[in-house]
Design brief:
This protein is α/β, with parallel strands linked by helices and 287 residues long. The protein has 2 domains: 159 residues, Rossmann fold, CATH 3.40.50; 110 residues, Rossmann fold (3-Layer(aba) Sandwich), CATH 3.40.50.1860. It has 12 helices and 10 strands. The strands form 2 sheets. Strands 4-3-1-2-9-10 form a 6-stranded parallel sheet, with helices on both faces. It has a 4-stranded parallel sheet with strand order 6-5-7-8, with helices on both faces. Strand 1, helix 2 and strand 2 form a beta-alpha-beta unit. Helix 2 crosses helix 11, helix 3 packs across helix 4 and helix 5 crosses helix 7. The protein starts with 13 loop residues before the first helix and ends in a 5-residue tail after the last strand. Bound molecules: D-glutamic acid (DGL). D-glutamic acid binds next to helix 4.
């Protein structure tokens, strides 16, 4: 996670007015599609007074199969779009984009915006909990980047990390196969992998996966802590906003949800991820 420092804020008596204006601005969130709405939902639970501006790049999903270069390019354009909506923070609510593009975004936007990813907050949480063996499941892009393994081991050399790409889970969830025979079989096939034996925690390193958190927990007979990045990241976001006196306490809340390609299908599954009614607007930022 990169956060803005006080050096970025005006230091004179005008800083009070600056903060007053900025705190009403929305939190920018983006994902490859609608999976990041699990993060948006978690933020709404913890920070109901905040406005959101969400962008789901449905024209380019899945990011899990894309190259690092493509994801950097998409992430940059989307961050610019969110800055155009005056986001006070940009949250990369996609593990594939966090793994591939977050360092690049920091170098490009460091001086303009508070940036938060979904990986560093989870790694810090894992280190604080002192788990000795951790499993990580995610898209091909996230797992092949080795980002979780490298970051965890850098901070705690004695910890062992086993990672597995589980690409069938995203289409499975989107097609509504949850707590049924098909999803049980897919989850069992992936998680029975011998390398997961003895894990104390399993990281859901994809923002789609909170939807099947309970099912995965049940698979492990509730003996493994299932780490849902949406919840962890929302708490970190609250801490960052508090630290910089940017909590929106004005009572003015307006949420906006954009996607780059609209179909009724996205509208339908967006409700499942956001756990509530949601209006999606098409924003064509690619032409
Ligand atoms: N939501 C994305 C993530 O967290 C997964 C979906 C995709 O592959 O685009 O990585």
């Amino acid at each position: 996670m990169h956060i803005i420092t006080n050096d970025h804020l005006p230091t004179c008596r005008w800083s009070f007015f600056y903060i007053f204006i900025v705190k009403e601005k929305p939190i920018g969130i983006f994902d490859s599609g609608v999976g990041g709405l699990t993060v948006a939902h978690a933020i709404k639970q913890i920070l109901p007074g905040e406005s959101l501006v969400y962008f789901g790049d449905t024209a380019h999903l899945p990011y899990g199969d894309k190259s690092e270069e493509s994801i950097k390019f998409y992430s940059r354009k989307i961050t610019e779009f969110l800055l155009g909506y005056d986001a006070k923070v940009v949250l990369v609510a996609c593990n594939s984009a966090s793994a591939s593009a977050f360092d690049y975004l920091k170098t490009e936007f460091n001086d303009r915006i508070i940036l938060i990813d979904v990986i560093d907050p989870v790694v810090n949480y894992l280190i604080a909990r002192r788990f000795r063996k951790i499993g990580v499941i995610g898209t091909k892009r996230t797992i092949s980047s080795g980002t979780y393994d490298l970051k965890i081991i850098k901070k705690s050399q004695g910890t062992s990390v086993v990672s597995l790409a589980t690409p069938l889970l995203v289409p499975m969830i989107e097609e509504g196969f949850i707590f049924d025979d098909i999803s049980n079989a897919i989850i069992r096939t992936y998680l029975s992998n011998e390398s997961f034996s003895g894990i104390e925690a399993l990281v859901l390193a994809c923002t789609h996966y909170p939807i099947i958190k309970n099912q995965i927990s049940k698979f492990f007979n509730f003996n493994v802590e299932i780490i849902d990045s949406a919840r962890v990241v929302s708490h970190v976001l609250r801490d960052v906003l508090e630290k910089h006196q940017l909590i929106n306490d004005t009572g003015n809340v307006k949420d906006q949800f954009f996607i780059s390609d609209y179909t009724p299908y996205f509208e339908k599954i967006a409700k499942m991820f956001f756990e509530g009614d949601i209006n999606l607007t098409k924003a064509d930022i690619w032409n």
